[in-house]
Amino acid sequence: MGIEIERKFLPAGDGWREGGEPVLLRQGYLSTDPARTVRVRIEGERAFLTIKGKNQGATRGEWEYPIPVAEAAELLDTLCPPPLIEKYRRRIPVGAHTWEVDEFLGANAGLVVAEIELASEDEAFEKPEWIGPEVTDDVRYFNSNLIRHPYSSWKDRI
Predict the structure, then answer these.
(1) Count of structural domains, the chain
(2) Taking the CB of the first residue and of the last residue of the chain, which one, N or C, has fewer CB atoms within 10 A?
(3) How much is the pTM?
């Protein structure tokens, strides 16, 4: 089984804009059940089908498979209920890790989330100066929830 250990943060300021080239991501969900999500994603010229299990803290099972871009586009257009998640992702190396900073579009415009994948939940990592509050345990920031409850509808944004 694949394991994903991921922590999420909100950026403080725009310093993240100076790192990494933005790549457009389009993704939709075949299942948004909290016990199992099934995602289709096109990232630049690549596409993936990803299955994720239920979160246990910052850890969950994850299985990811490359699929042809044309098939991913067909799945997004025919089987994934709208709206799709669209965002620009920047990969920014900091110390021994790479931060992924997502700038959301559409109904989630204005939301920016920085994520870091770790080998263990207690692994030490370097926080760049542009990292703000942690939101790992706030389910509103899960991409699968942003489809049903987009950022533009939130009344209490951090």
Answers:
(1) 1
(2) N
(3) 0.92
Query: How far is it, in rounded angstroms, from Cα 9 to Cα 61?
Result: 21
Catalytic residue, candidates 29, 65, 88, 151: 29
For 139-157, letters b (16+ CB in 10 Å) and e give: eebbbbebbeebbeeeeee
| Residue appearing with tokens 């199992």 | 36
Q: What is the pLDDT of residues 37-83, one digit of tens each?
A: 999 999 999 999 999 999 888 888 999 999 999 999 999 999 999 99
Domain range for 104 is 3-153
Active site annotation includes 29 = yes
pLDDT digits (tens, 9 = 90+) for 85-119: 999 999 999 999 999 999 999 999 999 999 999 99
